Amino acid sequence: MCLGTIGKNSIRFTEQFFLFICFTVIITNVVVSAMKPQDFRTCAQTSFCRRNRAYADKAISNSFVSPYNVVKDTINIENGIISGELINTENKVSFVFQVHLLMNNIARIKINEKYPLKPRYDGVKYWSLIQEPVNTLEYTENPSTGKDGVTSLSFGVDRNRKVIIYHTPFHVELLVNDEPVIIFNNRGFFNFEHLRKKDDSVNQPEELIIQSEINTEKEIQTEEKKEERSEEGLWEETFNGKIDSKPNGPESIGLDISFPGFGHVYGIPEHASTLSLKETRGGDGTYNEPYRLYNLDVFEYDLDSPMALYGSIPFLLAHRKGVSAAILWLNAAETWIDIVKSKDDKSFLSFGKPTSTSTHTHWFSESGIIDVFAFLGPTTSDIFKQYGSLTGFTALPQSFAIGYHQCRWNYLSQGDVAEVDEGFDVNDIPYDVIWLDIEHTDDKKYFTWDKIKFSEPEKMQKNIGRKGRKMVAIVDPHVKRDDGYYIYKEAKDLDILTKDKDGKVYEGWCWPGNSVWIDWTNPKAQDWFSKKFAFIQYKGSTEFLFIWNDMNEPSVFNGPEITMPKDLLHYEGWEHRNLHNLFGMAFHSATSQGLINRTTPNHRPFVLSRSFFAGSQRFGAIWTGDNVANWDHLAASSPMLLTIGISGLPFSGADVGGFFGNPEPELLVRWYQTGAFQPFFRAHAHIDTKRREPWLFGDPYTSYIRDAIRQRYILLPFWYTIFQEASTNGMPIIRPMFVVFPDNEEIFAMEDQYFIGNSLLVKPITNQGQTTTEVYFAGNDLYYDYYTFKKVQGSGKVKVDITMNKIPVFLKGGSIIPRRQRFRRSSLAMYSDPFTLLVALNKKGEAAGTLYLDDGKTYEYQKGHYIHRNFNFTSGRFISTSFNKQVQDSENNYIKTNKDLRIERIIVLGVDRSPKNIIGYYNDLIDDKKELKFSLGGIDDIKGIVSASIGVSVEEISKDIIIIRDPKLLVKRDWTIEFVN
Ligand code: NOJ
Where in the cell is it found (predicted)? Predict the structure, then answer.
């Protein structure tokens, strides 16, 4: 076995590469190689995928009838749970099923074997759900219940949700206002491979050959061959020479889930695919492979592909005019999803509008049980809330985390860090965090520092911290197998390492060379690891240091598909196969808890993770991994982040500039301009790339980048307010067009423009040399250019000229946006700055918005120590009131320490004539009205705001704007401004 040190320029270690290292030990320069599709399995190379697709093919033949029936007289309805027994009439295996009617218009279906040979994994709920969901007692049995093999209940406060269980064959319909929205087993694909003994020859599932294979393998389809194949992959499976021992044999589960009348479905990240998901069973413009959910380290990944990437969220949202519905397939084993659409479903479904399109999905996982949640909306925002009520809302980050992050693999020494930090100041560019990749450690032993290059880590962090900035250091989940390394030793002594199939500690290869993996699913490991971040334990760390969890799919360079073998053993003997997709999240969870624990009172953590699952939003941010410095990857970042955001994980970003390769300056500028309008904003670059700190390009590029980053900082109060919203109601931070305009079918698949909150419309520019673009203005209301404040002429698709200094951004009429317009070096430096309110009136002359503020650091806000204002402009009156009813102002610690925060300016767009005067007063001092200074398009006032409108001259700014100067109003108080005509 090779124990050589891995050189600092090592890039990507496939097994072959490791062998190379082992034999040469010296590595100096390695060429970056592109993603190798042959490293990853296709459906046809995956036995349970083949079997389930084949089962589906058989099921759609005319003669097929699903063999699963409800056993007579077994249905029981009690406390919001309908339970019963199913039988597979072909092999006589019994199952138990439950349909739970839950609070908030959610339903849940669970199916498991009645007498499994041994327990099947049902542990995902402990990781993904915040608590055991509460059943509702708001339901009524319908008169038909029990008759004609149908059980039917209406539920929800208004009884307008309905569940109908058909007994023969078993299928379940969920209805909203009497229209079916989700149907389980409508196509009869339900397939539950019961656990069996290997020598039980009668009870083996049939291996059916899928159509695509028949075509390619036509010539060899002899009876003999078919015979051989029927056993293939059931009890052992080999891929690229790696054997999966499959001690339990076949144990997959599959189910079809139809969305009648829904032409669009979204979600199931992570894929580099379209926002509106594609069909997957071949044909023009569709995929041949199902969407795959299996957390993998796929660097330099292909675009427009259903192949698996770093994270998995088995959440799918269906949307049509008037209603949305969604499901969560709570299973963390490898999962594939086929999608097909059909027109004119009359013959297929028992209902449906003749001309509508329906979407039919087919889900299959390698192991576990069927546990599916159905979210019955009816609106998308209801669904985001319903999903968040189960899996948790996104954690409110510290405010620095939404500033700009500067990363590269690697900043090479503390001197390098100091220079880069200084570079930002010299060049007048704000930033909040500088990052350290794996080279900062002593020999890839996380929690340690390179003794020479980072000899004074505390001093380095304090120097950064003094300027109000932070640092992030990487902590990966693999542990160098080195008896002198305390993390390894403690983990070994505590017996919390992942084991191989024979119960020995599993060893594999990663950055440190020979490594072991802590079993994050072991509660003891969670507890132990979360203590490793105590300042006294993590030597050289300070409160300015935060954490980055990478490689947590987990990435194992010599493992099958560059990850862990499926037959490894975790806590309580569960095979890795059952929980692969949540392994990375369990690590993220322990790290995040570690950062919370390290201070008293607790501070909010910041941990970036590459791997994720349903529930990861509670632990921090994620990013889309190893993208490439090209225009297509820049374009792909929008649908990817929109998809991840609507799947409950809104704090996400893509490496600005592209990880692999060297972006030309124009691409880099466009990437910064886009990244500034995405939730997590971090530039990152591969170790082999040229340095690309913003000032290295010279003007005009450096100025463009400076402007883009400054725009981010101006809008930080707006971003923070939307983050707070996401943390309480699950609304995505950046929102696809269909979320903001749910009834406009034209934009259901639109993915190249999006909203931040409901107010700012952003259109990234993703082509070289582009001088015009088309922006779609939905909703027949006013829009304003965000920089010039000019009204957009026209609606629907409008051609817009573009320049190099900015990307198109528009304010939707009806919005009020809080900004801070003074340029400083970091978000903390802006902490006490006054606010500018940007009021964009709609056609009715109205606008509304909010502003949320707290200490940006601790959990004091949970006790009511925050400011949350509700701004409303109607009939010429602009009123600010408080949402905070939790504590009195006099008891509010945030208000007490920020009592002088004030509004320094109000800009009102869409007013075409000047009021006679404008008066302002506090609502509790109505007799103390003051006349406010203002101008309509006044040149001096415009001069005062032009610096915030990057690269725009005074002449370009609309004159139809009112600027109220220093209204002398405090943020904390209720006030009114009246326009007097
Ligand atoms: C892979 C990550 O995706 C990348 O961002 C990081 O720089 C390298 N690992 C090295 O840690």
Answer: Endoplasmic reticulum
